[in-house]
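Example: Divalent metal cation transporter MntH.
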Amino acid sequence: MTRIKGEASLSDVHESVDVSRKKIGWKKALAFFGPAYLVSVGYMDPGNWATDLAGGSQFGYSLLWVLLMSNLMALLLQGLSARLGIVRGRDLAQANREAYARPVNLMLYVLAEIAIAACDLAEVLGMAIGIQLLTGLPLIWGVAITVFDTILLLLLQKLGIRKMEAFIIGLIAIIGLSFLVEILIASPAPAAIATGFIPRFVNDNALYIAIGIIGATVMPHNLYLHSALVQTRKINRTREGIKQALKFNFIDSTIALNLAFLVNAAILILAAKVFFEVGYTNVAEIKDAHRLLDELLGKNNKLAPILFALALIAAGQSSTVTGTLAGQIVMEGYLRLRINPWMRRLLTRLLAIIPAILVIAIAGEHEVDSLLVLSQVILSMQLGFAIIPLIHFVSDKKTMGEFAIKPYVQFVAWVVTAILVYLNIRMVLNEAGKVFSQSGNLGWEILIIVGGAAFLGLLGYIIFHPIINKRAKETSITIHPHLEGLQQLTIPAYKKIAVALDFGKHDNTLLAHAIGQGQGNAEYLLIHVVESASARLLGKESDDYETQHDEARLQLYVQQLHEQGLTATCQLGFRHRSEEIIRIINEAQADMLVIGAHRHSGLKDWLYGETINSVRHELKIPILVVNL
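Written out as structure tokens, the predicted fold is:
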């Protein structure tokens, strides 16, 4: 884990796609396309499946208007998110860090992490259900298997952002084609579908499902994600260049999010046609939907359930990539901390796996779909805390200049926010009313009151903070202390420089760098760690051929340095490379280490890169890493 200072959002891929030199035309447009597709997978993840299936099977086509409204909201909000990233070069987490006090940012960070964990919970459960439907593997084992997709994410990040985008688009194609075939098989009536776009709520349960649909569609972590992903494009930072980037990203978002809407609508329509119309209004589980597709679409029709399971796995796998990227953005933006991508992925996945396994082990597999819907309601409750700051930021003419959103866009954005916040508060009051209507729930009542007060207090703060705080703030994500200039410099003189040697072809290079640091006046400590089978077993007592040979080679190096008028000593280590290097340096009280890096990639980077990382974290002295 490292603390970062002023680095760009997703620095590994920041401005890695250069669109500034491409000429006007379809090639330039395609160079911009990609970020919105990574965002759109969050709009068709397994959490959407649970809410869409529940809505379609219980209420027929009547909630299609909620999907359409959610999609329009998503288009507006994702457009604002992309505008923030393109114009200001900030992602939403970085902008929040600049604008709010540290305690508020900490609360916003925790809420964002909860949203990401809730989203990942849906992806874990969805993938596990898909695996079970195809293979028959118990659900709890399918949940455990999902931890291994960490490796897939690592490989994608190694290949670069464009390869990652291509992979995601491929999974989206699998999902879309699967449901296209299933809709053609089910053949719903167009007139019946049209009635679903008339706004109405059948009952309070329909409101709960509708809020779940909104939460599954407009997700807070996607706002963080989009504001960072658009910065992977290197654009001309001119008025014309920014306007062009905004135009192409709007087209990108429109295409990608409308594709996501069609997928969600297809799921709900399929559930309404196959289940609701024949009286199966209690289809609350994805597994039931898979089984009934086989039964209700014809005994000989095995294609629909297979496509259903494959699309479910593709939806979970695609969403898991973007969830990790969002987690990285949130952690770096709010806390200025960076951890290895695989560790971040593992952490996010474990936060999702643990509650999933507990629910399956304690309550049974039949509660999994209820957990899916609950995860989407949790997402919806976080929305206000992401949307409200976003609207403030893109409305601010001091930071956005001429690219600040127009008053009518501000009005629409605030109306959308008011609707979302109102629906969430109404849902919470409905659910809380059930607790207060029963006796013996004093503990829960106090918790609801305290939590509700904190929720409303934080919401009020982020709404009115820009109005109260009129004082202009300097916008900088670097947060460096102010200095007039360089102070008096003290040039270090190293007395004992340790050199870690692996007896490869680069020993001369390492020694040359070490001598350059010491200017010939230092003492040089040559270190080599013996890792033969005998050395690992016997340690210092080892006297095998490799130990003898390594000792002789070290002595030869020392003799050759003496002949050049340099002071040098040597020492062998045994068993564990990094531990021995640390021990020898501490015992010898060396004040600098020179070590080589072989620039491995992929699996070799895991295997061989650990020595430098371990040594770097344990030693307090300067370390010169020489790329070989």
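The radius of gyration is 29 Å.
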